[in-house]
Write a structure and sequence with these properties.
The structure is a single chain. The strands form 6 sheets. Strands 1, 2, 8, 9, 10, 13, 19 and 20 form an 8-stranded mixed sheet that branches. Strands 6-5-15-16-17-14-18 form a 7-stranded mixed sheet, covered by helices on one side. Strands 3-7-4 form a 3-stranded antiparallel sheet, with no helix packed on it. The protein has helices at about 20-35, 65-70, 120-135, 195-205, 280-285, 290-295, 315, 345-360, 370-380, 380-390, 390-420, 435, 460-465, 485-495, 500, 535; strands spanning about 10-20, 45-50, 60-65, 85, 90-95, 100, 115-120, 140, 145-150, 155-160, 165, 170-175, 180-190, 215-225, 235-240, 250-255, 260-270, 300-310, 320, 325, 480, 510, 520-525, 545. The model has no long low-confidence stretch (mean pLDDT about 95). With about 550 residues, the chain is of the alpha+beta class. It contains 16 helices and 24 strands. The protein binds flavin-adenine dinucleotide (FAD). The site of flavin-adenine dinucleotide has 42 residues, from helix 1, strand 2, strand 3, strand 14 and strand 17.
Length: about 550
C-alpha cells in the first residue's frame, strides 16, 4: 500500500462516473443534455480502465433498442453503428449429433428478437463516447478507478484513478505516479458485472441486505469470419443442451453480422456443482457439434474474450442509491436472463440515475442519497421486465434445462405476459451463492475434454492471444488471496482446485514437481481478461479481484 501522505491532485466535478460501458456513457450523456436544456452546466467525467473506450466491452450482442431510443431518439440519423436488424431466429435443443428446433412463434414474446439489432457493443460504446464528448463530457480511457474515497460523514466523495508505478513487491518504482482524486457531488459506479468498487460499496452500505444473492454465468465468446455462402446476415440462433448436461445451466448464441462475421458464444451458469467442469472446455466441445462445425468449416477465429454475466435479475437487485452516488447498469445487475439482454437496461438505469442526480444538483444538493433514482427504478420498464422474468433462473437452477428452463419457465413467462406479473410460482428464491453451490470433488467424476485441434478448437493460451490482453509485467498482482495457503491446503484436496478450470484465461495453475509432489499455486495475473469469475466462483471466496492499478486487460477490437 503506497504512502497516503503523498499529495494527490484532486479535481472536482458535478458527477464522476466509473466505467465507459453503456450504463456509464448513457448517464453522462443524459446529465449533459439535462444541464443544456436548463441553460446551465454540469461537469461530468468518465474514467475507463480499458486502453480505449470499448476495449473491455464484451456482449453477444443482440441489442433491444429501448435504451438507445430513450437516450438518442434520432440515433439512426446520427449514424449509430446499429445496422443489422434481426431478420430471422432459431432456438434449438442440441443432442450430441443432432438438434431439435423449438417453434419460435410459440415462444413468449419477451424472448423473441424481432425489432432488435445485432451490434458490436464495443463499437456502439465508442460511438456513444463520441456523442458524450461532443456534449462536453470528459472521458479518460486507460484510467482505472482503484479506490473509493469517503467524506467524514461516510458518504462517497470520489475515487482514486491512475495510481501507477508500484512494483510487484508493493514498493514504489522510480516511475511512481500517485494518481488523482476525482471527486463529485455524486459518483456513479458503472463498472459492469461484479465491479470491485461496487462490491466494496454494496458491502459498506449493506445495499443487498434485502436482496437475494447475486447469481452469475460465465460467457465465452469468439468472433469468426465464416465462408460467405454460410453467412445469414441478421440471423440469431440460440441453443440449449449438449455438451452441457441437463443439470448445468447455460447455452450458446450465434449472431450473424452483415460482413461474413459471426459472434459465437457460450454461457455456463456459475452455480454448477461439479468442480471438474471446465466452462472453456465445454465451449470448445460445443464447436465440435456437427451443425456448428459445419458452420465454422473454412472460417477463421478472429477474436476471443470472456466476461461474467449477471443473472440474479429482479430478486438480486440491491438498493441502487447510496450516500453520494448510485449503482447503474450491471454494477447492480439488470440482465434479463431468458433474453440474455442487459445493455438496454444498463442504458435505462444510467438515464434514470442521471435524471435524479441532475435534479439534486439543480436543487443545490450533494453527497446525499438519490432517492428519486430508487423511485424511478421502482416504476420503470426495467423493473417490470425483470419482474416478469423473475422465475426463469430459479426454475432453471431447480429443475434443470428441459423441465425448468424450457417447459416451466416458458409457461411462467406466458402467464406473466397474459396477466402482467402473475406467476403460479409467486417469486422463487435463487438459493445459495454460486461459490457455495460448488460440491466436493469426491462426489463427482472428472470430465473428459477433447484435445484442441488448432483449427476448430483452441487451447486457452492460444485463444488468449486473440483477446490482445496485456498487463504491465512489474506490478502487484491484482488478484489477491485473503489466505495464500487455501488453494493448496483446502481447495486442492476438497475441490481439485477448480480455479484451474473456471478461469477462461489460464490465470490459475497448480504446479508440481516432476513426481507430482510439492503442489504450488501460481497466479499468472498478466493473463487476466477481467471476467471476474474467480471472484465469484472460488468456493471459500478467498480470491479477491481488485482493479489493476496500471489498468491493463484485454484490448477487444470489436466485441
Ligand atoms: C457473453 C455475454 C453475452 C451477452 N449478450 C448480450 C446481448 O446479446 N444483449 C444484451 O443486451 N446484453 C448482453 N449481455 C449483457 C451485457 O453485456 C451487459 O448487460 C452490459 O454490458 C452491462 O453494461 P454496463 O455498462 O453496466 O457494464 P459493462 O458493459 O461491463 O461496462 C463497464 C465498463 O466499466 C469499465 N470499468 C469497470 N471497472 C472499472 C474501474 N474500476 N475503473 C475504470 N473503469 C472500469 C469496464 O472496463 C467497462 O468498459 C451479455 C453479456 C455477456 C457476458
Amino acid at each position: 500500500m503506497p504512502d497516503e501522505t503523498q499529495t494527490r491532485e484532486a479535481m472536482e466535478f458535478d458527477v464522476v462516473i466509473v466505467g465507459a460501458g453503456p450504463a456509464g456513457l448513457s448517464a453522462a450523456i443524459r446529465l449533459k443534455e439535462r444541464a443544456a436544456e436548463a441553460g446551465g452546466e454540469a461537469s461530468v467525467v468518465v474514467v475507463e480502465k480499458g486502453s480505449e473506450v470499448g476495449a473491455h466491452i464484451l456482449s453477444g450482442a443482440v441489442l433491444d433498442p429501448a435504451g438507445l431510443d430513450a437516450l438518442i431518439p434520432d440515433w439512426k440519423e446520427k449514424g449509430a453503428p446499429v445496422e443489422v436488424p434481426v431478420a430471422s431466429e432459431s432456438i434449438k435443443i442440441l443432442g450430441p449429433s443432432g438438434s431439435l428446433s423449438l417453434p419460435v412463434f410459440a415462444m413468449p414474446p419477451m424472448v423473441r428478437n424481432h425489432g432488435c439489432y445485432i451490434v458490436s457493443m464495443g463499437n456502439l460504446c465508442r460511438w456513444l463516447a463520441g456523442q458524450a464528448e461532443a456534449l462536453g463530457v470528459e472521458i479518460y480511457p486507460g484510467m482505472a478507478a482503484s479506490r473509493v474515497l469517503y467524506r467524514p460523514d461516510g458518504s462517497v466523495r470520489g475515487v482514486v484513478v491512475g495510481e501507477m508505478g508500484i512494483g510487484k513487491d508493493g514498493r514504489r518504482k522510480a516511475s511512481y505516479e500517485p494518481g488523482m482524486e476525482l471527486c463529485g457531488k455524486y459518483v456513479f459506479i458503472a463498472e459492469g458485472v461484479r465491479g470491485s468498487l461496487a462490491k466494496e460499496i454494496i458491502g459498506k452500505y449493506a445495499l443487498d441486505a434485502d436482496a437475494e444473492p447475486q447469481k452469475f454465468g460465465i460467457g465465452l465468446k469468439e468472433m469468426w469470419e465464416i465462408r460467405p455462402e454460410k453467412a445469414r446476415p441478421g440471423h440469431v440462433q440460440h441453443t440449449f443442451g449438449w455438451p452441457l448436461t441437463d443439470d448445468v445451466g447455460g447455452g450458446s448464441f450465434i449472431y450473424h453480422y452483415n460482413d461474413n462475421t459471426i459472434a459465437l458464444g457460450f454461457v455456463v451458469h456459475l452455480n454448477y456443482k461439479n468442480p471438474y467442469l471446465y466452462p472453456y472446455g465445454e465451449f470448445q466441445k460445443f464447436k465440435t457439434h456437427p451443425e456448428i462445425a459445419a458452420l465454422l468449416e473454412g472460417g477463421k477465429r478472429i477474436a476471443y474474450g470472456a466476461r461474467a454475466i449477471a443473472e440474479g435479475g429482479y430478486q438480486s437487485a440491491p438498493k441502487l442509491a447510496f450516500p453520494g452516488g448510485a449503482l447503474v447498469g450491471d454494477s447492480a445487475g439488470f440482465v434479463n436472463v431468458p433474453r440474455i439482454k442487459g445493455n438496454h437496461n444498463a442504458m435505462l438505469t444510467g438515464i434514470m440515475a442521471a435524471e435524479a442526480a441532475y435534479g439534486a444538483i439543480a436543487a443545490g444538493r450533494a453527497g446525499d442519497v438519490l432517492e428519486d433514482y430508487e423511485i424511478a427504478y421502482a416504476a420503470s420498464p426495467v423493473r417490470r421486465e425483470l419482474f416478469k422474468a423473475r422465475n426463469a433462473k430459479p426454475l432453471w437452477s431447480k429443475f434443470g434445462t428441459r423441465l425448468g428452463a424450457i417447459a416451466l419457465s416458458g409457461l411462467d413467462l406466458w402467464t406473466n405476459t397474459i396477466i402482467p406479473g402473475f406467476s403460479v410460482f409467486g417469486t422463487l428464491k435463487h438459493g445459495p451463492t454460486d461459490a457455495a453451490a460448488t460440491e466436493p470433488a469426491s462426489r463427482h467424476k472428472p470430465i473428459d475434454y477433447p484435445r484442441p485441434d488448432g483449427v476448430l478448437t483452441f487451447d486457452r493460451l492460444t485463444n488468449l492471444a486473440f483477446s490482445a490482453t496485456n498487463h504491465e509485467e512489474d506490478q502487484p498482482s491484482h488478484l489477491k488471496l485473503k489466505d495464500p495457503s487455501i488453494p493448496i491446503s483446502v481447495n486442492l484436496p476438497l475441490y481439485a482446485e477448480p480455479a484451474q478450470r473456471y478461469c477462461p484465461a489460464g490465470v490459475y495453475e497448480v504446479l508440481t514437481d516432476d513426481d507430482g509432489g510439492n503442489p504450488r499455486f501460481q497466479i499468472n495475473a498478466q493473463n487476466c481478461v477481467h471476467c471476474k469469475t474467480c471472484d465469484i466462483k472460488d468456493p471459500p471466496q478467498n480470491i479477491v479481484w481488485t482493479t489493476p492499478e496500471g489498468g491493463g486487460g484485454p484490448n477487444y477490437p470489436n466485441m
